[in-house]
């Protein structure tokens, strides 16, 4: 989730991760068996403001690509409506700053330095880069008027959102309460949980559409949870995703297929001074 993503100042990432995007793929890796063994659909989570976790994830993905895997990369940080701009940027840009400027102009809420190593990797190896997220404007439509206000009818039917599993909705509601410091008006909890489901389904659809050639999702740990988030919807579509959480000490690992532990980021209490949005007027 993006909640509380007013970010701390970006810590400097290792320079080796910010390789210049030379647009010339490295020679074919000899370890073809490593590529064959790589998961077809891989989900790599994040704690949005944890620089060490971003660096560890970028290093892990680079290692797999250098071993021969050539996945498409889908990113939560780009809204699906920006795909044409992202396609043009990936054709014409030579560095991550150019891609970000052209495909996410003026977009707030992301510390883009954290994502430059992933974009640089896509440029260097000419990997397809896909926008995977529902926009904030469309998420707000879901909160106000439900799934049909923002999602195509075909997508709602494919994922059977008219019969949303109650356990998924209930768990998402708990996530919404917790991520809003328990201060959210109860009338907003279920609608906001449905907006989170809508984001997960849009991400899942992006991965489903590109799974045949191998795909990796870059997204928050909340979207990578196998029990209620993107992997849940991918399994509904007959896919077998592998979800890796990048977790700080003490975080529950049970919702992931694998976990990489990362040092805790130094941050202020996110609930200090938190102001909940007003309840909708009836």
Residue windows where pLDDT falls under 50 for at least 5 positions: 1-36
Q: How much helix is in the residues?
A: 40-55%
Structural class: alpha/beta
The radius of gyration over CA amounts to: 18 Å
What is the terminal-to-terminal distance?
28 Å
- Spatial ordering of strands, largest sheet: 3-2-4-1-5-6
Order of helices and strands: HEHEHHHEHHHHEHHEE
Residue fraction in strands = 5-15%
Mean pLDDT across every amino acid position: 87
Quaternary assembly: single chain
Query: How many beta-strand runs?
Result: 6
Largest sheet: 6 strands, parallel
* Gross geometry: globular
Count helical runs.
11
Tag the structure with descriptive keywords:
globular; 6-stranded parallel sheet; 282 residues; disordered N terminus; alpha/beta; single chain; 41% helix; 6 strands
Task: Please provide a written account of the structure.
This protein has 282 residues and is an alpha/beta fold. Helices cover 41% and strands 11% of the residues. It has eleven helices and six strands. It has helices at 32-37, 51-66, 83-92, 96-103, 116-125, 136-145, 153-158, 166-179, 186-209, 221-224, 230-236; strands at 41-44, 72-79, 129-133, 215-218, 242-247, 258-261. Strands 3-2-4-1-5-6 form a six-stranded parallel β-sheet, sandwiched between helices. It is globular. It starts with 31 loop residues before the first helix and ends in a 21-residue tail after the last strand. The relative contact order is 0.18. Mean pLDDT is 87; it is low at 1-36.
